[in-house]
Amino acid sequence: MSHFVPQSVKLGLPPSLRTRSRISLPRTNRASQRNGITASRLHSTLPLSGTLVVSLEQAIAGPFCTRQLADLGARVIKIERPGAGDFNRYHDTRVKGLCSHFVWTNRSKESLALDLKESDDLSALKKILSKADVLVQNLAPGATDRMGLSYQALKEKHPGLIVCDISGYGSTGPYKNKKAYDLLIQAESGFLSVTGSPGRPAKSGISIADIAAGTTAYNNILAAIIQRGKTGKGCRLDVSMLESMAEWMSFPMYYAYDGAPAPALAGAEHASIYPYGPFQASDGIVMLGMQNEREWGIFCMQVLEKAELFEDERFVSTSKRSENRKELKMIIEEVFSSFSADEVLARLQTAGIANARVSNMPGLWNHEQLKARDRWAEVNTPNGKIPALKPAGAAEGMEIRMDPIPSVGEHSEAIFKEFGIDR
């Protein structure tokens, strides 16, 4: 039996565009509209303009995913608990009294306060979902199933809806109901086993497992939107933090293939390529790296001014240099001890050897390359303006969206009016 598919669906138009003529704009002030319909019109040239994303999100993975969708013009409605909101608002108060994690991952969104344990609020959410293109959630395992918000429960009424579930371990398998946080996935994925120094494994300094999952979700949502443009159908995405990190761990996994030893713990050095890492100069540390024998020869002759090292049997290949790194490190640092870090960096740069400073956070805030490329903008927050990095890699000439970070429930009234929800 054939089914009628509206032309708007065949063309891949999102529900929020197909039904826009039936939506009445709320008569609210400009400030309250800024992240909503008004903002979506202001950003109408962005790729995801007209796409409505509803997100039951907390912590990092879900919010990082949806912030990137917002960067591309999607309208993101963030569902938060009344009063408290996303618990990630309160981990610290480093940014004008706001949490550093939260301000990073929540610009350009609308905040809708709903208590989903209350039937009226749950019904309100389901009404909003009737106009949505994407539902993202990273709540505790099973939470959306219990509320009737799973893909299986929604797909009959909303065949074009894309549902992205983000969890620690995925929706099947023996770990499906296991709680997961970033550091626990760093451990479970083997990341801790290849990071740090001998006898002192170390975690990443950033929430790398959350970022991996958020990026995986973002990429697959974009693919699902393209797929829906071809089929007219939504789909379910089952994104696992463990699987996202396992993909990023592919190099050390293959390095240890078929029972071979895993990469050695090497601190800030590369585990198998040398010299590639930090070296002490007279007044600080410099980073350098080389990937082939041509660069090694140039390094010996022009930087170290020790041409004989190029023929030294201990250092004739990448693997040999890695095996004998202690001896080579002593030789390199003996030369570098006669120069300041700036002088070493200048010698490396002149010779065409890759190099870097070891920046701290003030150094990154003030990095001359970021300033030269105009990478900074300002965003509004409930506590005033703060600097923020523009989205990386944006297409040349593409509009940059840097809309405010919302307070809890800031847009609730406007959204209720827009969707005809009585309150």
From TrEMBL:
Pfam families for this protein: CoA_transf_3
Any one Gene Ontology molecular-function term assigned to this protein's record: CoA-transferase activity
Note the superkingdom of the native organism: Eukaryota
Keywords on this record?
Transferase
Region forming the signal peptide: none
| InterPro entries tied to this protein | CoA-transferase_III_domain (IPR050483), CoA-Trfase_fam_III (IPR003673), CoA-Trfase_III_dom3_sf (IPR044855), CoA-Trfase_III_dom_1_sf (IPR023606)
- What's the family? Belongs to the CoA-transferase III family.
- PANTHER family in the cross-refs: SUCCINATE--HYDROXYMETHYLGLUTARATE COA-TRANSFERASE
- Please state what the protein is called: Succinate--hydroxymethylglutarate CoA-transferase
